[in-house]
Amino acid sequence: MSVKCKFLLMSFLLGIYVTSNADTKINIPDEKLAAIAERYFERHLQLDPLEGSATTGEARFEDKLEITISPAAQIKNHKLAQDVLRELQSVDEKTLSAADRITYQVLTSEMQDQLEADKFPFNLLPIDQLGGLPVYLAQFGTGQDIQPLKTVTQYEHYLTRLEKLPRWIDQAIANMRKGIKCGVVQPKPLIISGLPAIKALTENNIEKNPFYLAIKNIPENFSAADKAHLIAIYKKAIQAKLIPATKKLTFFLENEYLPNARNTAGVGALPDGKAWYQYQVMHHTTTTMTADEIHELGLKEVARIREEMEAIKKTYQFNGSLSDFLRWQNNDPQFRPFKTEQDVLDAYEVLNKKIALKLPELFGRMPKAPLIIRPEPELTRATASDHYNSSAPDGSRPGIYYAVIENPAQYRNTKMTSLFLHEGQPGHHFQMGLQQELSIPKFRKFGWITAYGEGWALYAETLGKEMGLYEDSNQYLGHLKLELVRAVRLVTDTGLHAKGWTREQTMQYMMDTEGSAEADARRATERYMAWPGQALAYKIGALKIQELRARAQQKLGEKFSLRDYHDVVLCDGVLPLSVLDTKVNAWIEAQQK
Questions:
Q1: What is d(CA 41, CA 216) in angstroms, rounded to the nearest whole number?
Q2: Taking 70 as the threshold, does the pLDDT of residue 423 lie above it?
Q3: Nearest-5° angle of CA 190, CA 196, CA 198?
Q4: From 338's CA, which of 77, 129, 292, 437 has a CA 20 to 30 Å away?
């Protein structure tokens, strides 16, 4: 009975709690806990309506933009976490069903994490190598992201949101000036990398300005009067508000911030940096592992994966070191077969159809939302990586896999299978899509925990073996390359932030270990510099899911069903790894009876 997660259907979704003596009781959801969870979620989205657009897709958020980096917003978020924890004290966890207990544990963990995060000045670093919020908002003009642009009202809502950006920029500048005074500033390379995308927003020719993209994509079915109206108000806002604000930001970054940006690479070099990094390790991995433990784990994983790569190298009859082989493979024309952007997109479509045929063998339950493939918008191609945007719960927006295609002739096909398994299905699209369909509190339905979400997506890459997708040695090498990247992250992220590695030292390690091109190593290194700890979550989470699978197989023997195991892992949405461990153990025990 894998379709509804067998035991999880009974135990966690319907709330039947299996006791040690195998007695059961039907759960009536705890009304007090449900009310606390609902109030929290609503207050949270009011404080960050941009997240409301990204998660729920509700129209009420379309025109709103709160200045979440302001001191006032920080205080409100802190108070919200305190209020929720105080309310949770009135709930007796011991009396809760298994389903409610998960909600209680996840909400408690999330609020404790927020209070811990508030000890560190994240808001003083609002601009990174991607350009920050101004660039992010400009991307919405495609109409393909979280900002819907199908009606005149939606166009007006988007412009209302954009017109609030100058206030955000003023606050960002104030925050960065404070950061200069207290020594909390970004590394110089991040600002240098982010400036071109921000500068593009200052284009005086309005029709070439990225903020005008929405008008370029205006639906043909709009009336002439509506088109004229929208063109007029967009041009006026871009000319009078958005261009001056982004010019102000650019001038500040070039003339005031960049000269004061730091030459060090890791967060460990900042005031209280060691504690700051350890918090981010805990936040992203949901474990108590130390930086040293993760670094050593990374070195072991790197050695293991490279050994497997050595075996593949022999099949190519390549004479030279493994790093030389990986560099050769990166650059050989036979692995760059595309001529146009559409060639790349067509190859992904073929792969998607092939994967779809295999999924019923591995999953009892699959998301209802469709998955489509699109190229990354031109504005962010130079700094983005292939990624996924989740579908809207109301079905108005499908799940989207964005392929970053800067130059089709240089697009390598080696990693395509693993990339799509990770970002598309059964990776992020399955995990996020199924989560939206669950009967769980909204803060969990739309929640995110890096170790679980990225861990699942990395684990999903390994399923290419079960699907027969890695029989091609080129695609299997691509899988190992991506796995090596995640293992290298354990070494380089901790190296940068806990061991004082430089940007150049980190890039060199990647080039030597992965055979990376310098540009790829730079892009990856700057990402880890900007988001300390985030890159650790992939391997830590995937290893936990693989460990739990091996445990279930060992204990259940012939009773083990991979379809059921996958459904169990996905049936409660994102969870801290310790909660996931407890849940899977309970499922194993139930299957043994």
A1: 36
A2: yes
A3: 90
A4: 129
